[in-house]
Structures are given as C-alpha cells and as structure tokens.
Amino acid sequence: MELEIAYVLFIDIVGYSKLVTHEQRRLLELLNRIVREAEHFRAAESNGRLITVPTGDGMALVFYNTPEAPVECALEISRAAREHPELKLRMGIHSGPVSGVVDVSGRSNIAGAGINIAQRVMDCGDAGHVLISKHMAEDLEQYGHWRRHLHDLGECEVKHGVRVSVVNLYTEDLGNPEVPQKFRQARKGVAPVVREKTSRRWIIAVPVVLIAALIIGAVILSRRSAPVASGSGASPVPTATPPTNAAAVPEKTIAVLPFDNLSRDPDNAFFTDGVQDEILTDLAKVADLKVISRSSVMQYKSEVARDLRKIGRELGVAHLLEGSVQRANNRVRVNAQLIDARNDAHLWAQTYDRDLADVFAIQSEIAKTIADQ
C-alpha cells in the first residue's frame, strides 16, 4: 500500500437526504456532469493524477499535482452550479496522506487522513461555502494571488469533539462570504451539533501518529516542577530546571520541526512530510496548547545541525518535536523525541515500528477513546 500526499476536494449536496429518490438521482447526475465538464478535472484526469470517490450524496476528488488544482476545480464547479439554484453544494479541501485500498465489495477506494479531514472541513460549512483547512491555506499562501481570498474562521468542533482550523475561500462572485452556521452558534455560546453521516460506505481510520501527538500533548500539559513518569519504551524524563530567563516563554507551546527522511528513496520525502503534517495537525487539536504553524518551521528543514535552543528562541516556544521516518518494503519506522528548547533536555522519546498497511488501521473507536480523555 503506497501512501502519497494528495489534495482532496470533498463535495456534498446540501439537504440530499430530504429529497425524494428521483430528485436525488437528478441532482447527482447534474453534479456529475458539472464536475466532468470542469477544466481542471479533465486536465488531472487526462494526466492520470486524479481519483474520484462517490460518497452517496456527493463525491471526493483526489488530486496529486498541485494545491491549486482542487481549489480551481471547486471554483469552476461553484460557477457552474450558480446556473442551477436547486443544486446547493458545500465543499471542503485539505491536503494530507492518502492510500488506495480495496473495500469489502472488492472495489478500489481511498483511505487516509487527507480525505478524512477534507470531509470534516466540509461538514463545517453551509450551502455555497468552499472551506479549506488551515494547513491547506498555508500551502495556498505560497501563491500570492490567493491570499486576498483566504478568510480565517478559527476552529470548528467536529466528530469526537475534535477541533479543526478552517479558512473560508471566496472571491468577489464565487463562494459564500457568510460565516457558517456552526461558527455563529459557537460564538453565541451554543455548542454546534454535528450530524454523523452513517450512509458512507467506506471507513476512514485515523493515522497512528495521533497516538504520538496526544502523548506529547499530555506530557506538555501535565508538566510542572516534578518529572513526568515515562511510559513503556519511552526515555526517562530529566529533572533539570529550566533557566530563569526562559520564564517569558509560555510553557504550553510547541513547534514540530521537519522530520528527517532516512529512506534511500528520495520520493519518500513526501511521505515523511505527511507524517510531520499529521502530527502537527493532531497537536493543534489539543486544547490550551499553542502549536507553531507549518510555514514557520519549514525554514529549518535544510539544517544539518540544529541549534535547538536558538530555534526555540526564534519561534518563541518551550518545546520542540523532531524525528525521522524510514520506510522499507512494507514496513515503516517513525522516531519522535520531545525536547525542552530552554535547556535542551529530552522529555520523551518513542519509536513506532509498524506494517505500512497499519498506518491507517487503527479503528475509529480507539480514536474516540483517545479524544475523550
């Protein structure tokens, strides 16, 4: 099973379940026609860099070329849908690791955090919205012409109480500039209700790195003057006291540095970046923990010898996470270590050895148990 970084556009017909059967069929056929006529859809399909996944009341389009492809495609679809006011769409976009799988019916499908989070981002919107994850927005910001169309909404609570950072993408005439209902409810102090969609015929599991992220978050949030007991296989926690001049740096802060690619295949760099991205994303969901953005830490990717204290001062964080990824045949090894940037002390370390196929094999019940803790 090969893992790749993909750019996922998730599309949903709003109010689909309330429609009669023949109207559902008609709108799905209309949506399919609009999508297939989109220029960026046709271009990606002709290059063999697109996978389409039906979802019952919409679809997921998995692009493998550039971050702009799903965004341009979403705007094309939005433009065409304006000619059909009965077709109310909402869309979500995210970039992350995905993998081809075979479902219980023997059909090809897609699984992975990339498609999972794209759906969660979409679930935060209303009709007309084109929402993108904060991570995806940071990718788009590298293309200057997109910046004025990106409008930060903050965090939205989704499945299992997880919070995702969302950005609203709209232009002068496309997208929906209104604040989504879930965000308005949250700002009024009313907890948004997220309706679970049980009609999905595929299950997307969480990546194994979620466990590492939550352990790291727990270590940081529980730190006081006393050491934190180490778990099985983890390095002992030193009792060193941070220097007094570090007091100005908030304790509950962390930066996830780019992971090292230890595989011989240079193409594995994309997979390595994906592991780092998912750990960063999962840590960002931990309440009261400030996580430095991906764009801020990427400047340290090329450094051979890192001065961790200097990096900590430059980023204004108390903790740094660094690690490495090695993939060989059907095995993957992820090493991670948590460091106190104020005194260079190692707080926690762990090695994860798994079958490559097991990266997405942790069941959703485990994810819920962890999220509820």
Structural write-up:
By secondary structure, this protein is α/β, with parallel strands linked by helices. It folds into two domains: 3-187, Nucleotide cyclase, GGDEF domain (Alpha-Beta Plaits), CATH 3.30.70; 209-372, ABC-type transport auxiliary lipoprotein component (Rossmann fold). Helix content is 31%, strand content 26%. It contains eleven helices and 14 strands. A hairpin with a 3-residue loop joins strand 2 (50-54) and strand 3.
Question: What is the topology?
Answer:
Blueprint: E1 3-13, H1 21-37, H2 39-46, E2 50-54, E3 58-63, H3 68-81, E4 89-102, E5 108-111, H4 113-123, E6 130-133, H5 134-140, E7 150-157, E8 163-169, H6 181-187, H7 209-222, E9 253-256, E10 260-261, H8 268-284, E11 290-291, H9 294-297, H10 308-315, E12 319-328, E13 331-340, E14 345-355, H11 364-372
Parallel strand pairs: 4-6, 9-11, 9-12, 10-12
Antiparallel strand pairs: 1-3, 1-4, 2-3, 4-5, 6-8, 7-8, 12-13, 13-14
Task: Give short descriptive properties of this protein.
Rossmann fold; 2 domains; 31% helix; eight-stranded mixed sheet; 11 helices; 14 strands; six-stranded mixed sheet; Alpha-Beta Plaits; alpha/beta; 373 residues; 26% strand
Task: Summarize the model shown.
The protein is an alpha/beta fold and 373 residues long. The protein has helices at 21-37, 39-46, 68-81, 113-123, 134-140, 181-187, 209-222, 268-284, 294-297, 308-315, 364-372; strands at residues 3-13, 50-54, 58-63, 89-102, 108-111, 130-133, 150-157, 163-169, 253-256, 260-261, 290-291, 319-328, 331-340, 345-355.
